[in-house]
Here is the input.
Amino acid sequence: MSNILEVKNVVKQYGDYTALNSVSLQVPKGSIYGLLGPNGAGKTSLIRIINQITMPDSGEIILDGEKLAPNHVQYIGYMPEERGLYKTMKVGEQALYLAQLKGMSHAQAKKQLKYWFEKFEIEGWWDKKIQELSKGMAQKIQFIVTILHEPKLLILDEPFSGFDPVNANLIKDEIIELNKKGTSIIFSTHRMESVEEMCDYIALIHKSNKLIEGKLEDVKRNHRTHKFQVGILTNNVEGLMYDLTQKFTVASTDFKSLNDDLKLEIDLGTSTSNELLHVLTKNGQVTHFSENIPSVNDIFIQTVSNI
Amino acid sequence: MSLLSLIIKREFIAKVRNKSFIVMTFLSPLLIVGMSFFIGYLANMNKGEVTKIAIHDAVGTLKPDFKNTKEIVYVDLSAMPLKLAKETSSKNYEGLIYIPKVADQKELINKVEYISDESPSMEFIMEMEDVIDNQLTKNNLNALGFDSDKIEKAKTKASIHLLKFSGEDTIKGINEMKIAIGGAFGYLIMMFIIIYGNFVMRSVIEEKTSRIIEIIISSVKPYQLMMGKIIGNSLAGILQFTIWAIVGGVLIFTATSFFGMQAGAQGSVDPAVMHAAQGELGATFQSYIKEFFNLPLATLVISFVIYFIGGYFLYSSLYAAIGAAVDSETDSQQFLLPIIMPLMLGVYVGIFTVVNDPHGTVATVFSMIPLTSPIVMLMRIPFGVPWWQLALSIGLLFGTFLGVVWFASKIYRVGILMYGKKPTWKELYKWLKY
Here is the structure.
């Protein structure tokens, strides 16, 4: 699979401060890509460079096989973290204007807008000013103007901050639908748990450096702990514990369960899960058996603390 | 449609549709014309009032020399005793001129008194002193054996005929007319820069506070946005000025013809006198008109357009940079001062030095410095400016304009993405290097 976006050794400095220290990324075509990292890591600096708002000091950006050029703005849809619209301008005119700035013709933009206004059932808003709309309503408009020109690459900076849960879900569904139609999507956020379920690929950025990049499953596999959570009903706790501690490291844990069972976290060490199951079934009735999959947050914290 | 023209169109429409813009455009000519007529009316009302001044002349020689005018009527109280005259005057009249009895009339030179509660105007004091001086001079002349009446008749009143070397007639007060015309153009540029520069700044701040700026500049270059803003706002401004000129012109025309008719109806002045006055006035007026068309009008108008564009772009790009650097209008004050200063300087230098010496060093230098040249040079042009000076000044203006736009767009580019705190001068300098 080819890449929609390649970032190659991008460096950006603001005075003495290095915002991006030779960062490279590969965003595969058709993926949902999570650009993750705490505030101030350099995510927004990178996104602004991709959007040609600022220029990198060195390095290059390849968009869909071509070196990034001014006319590429029409292929990118960008919703910045700091978003807003002209408060005193009418919704329709404003959306038309922004679409035309992205290179659409007036007629084309109008047709597209009609489609989205109908889809979101907001046809009546065309002649309203933004200042007359509620915050949630304005957010819908904001989303429409971002995707109106059917970008190949959609970049959403802190996508769900400021959206109420209902709108956030609506937007989420739209994003997934767009993705299914072939749009590549980059989420940039510091709230890693909020996008984890949606992303195929992630990159972790910390203090101007990229730490990890890859397919979400691969990243998780590389950071697996080989720990299992186990629930078991047994009359012979002592025997069970004796057998377990022969081969495994055992700790007590807690999770939600409908049974009054013994809850354990077991580190496989060099053994396999089948060996563990064998010991367990010998000593009682297994009610729960699952691998501890690290969250992106865990992986991030673990990676940062290892530096 | 190109991006720049899209931006210009939006800025223009956003400005023109603004309610306060519409109100300002149509209401201010009405207000200004209305105000000036109101003030004129008030001034006229005051003129009709007659001031009564009493005279107590113990000798009786000076009294006839105080002649009644439209504004002042003299009342003779010489018959009353001084004390009573004073009392009467303080109750009924503005003041009392007291001419005491003296042994020798020469003593009157410092013996005449004027008694009043309100201090008299300089003009009136000089009038009174003239009357005394005339009388005493006459006395002196007679005492020396001259016939004062003959001397009075022998006095002449010369009038110098003003010409140019080319042989054309010129008129007195032409310098005042020239400075008035040049000054009007210069002042217009200054007003336009301050008003529309502020609009540009406000529009930048609005984009910043509404947070739409990042969306816009992900589609267009900040430089394009800035230029579009400046041009769009200036077009709105030109439209407004045009409307003002038309509406103002129509209003003044209708108002003057209306008031003129009224004045004519009330007029009870001797037609012959009026005709004579009109003839004289007409001649002067005609020579003014002639002189006006002798001015380098084409140069003036073309230069006005050039300096207008250069000056406005120069300053409004600075206004845009300031708007980008701050988060609210209140924060902009410290940065605005250095912009307003050269504008003010231009106007004052223009008014105080160009009149006295249009081609002196000060006026010449200030008509070269780009920040003041749009104002000062326009004031100088009616007096005739050598071509090379004009060319140099315009060259400097546009050179600086390009430099300033570059500088301003750098600040603008960084500033629009900076939120939160007000930057210092040092930080602005740092932004130039980003």
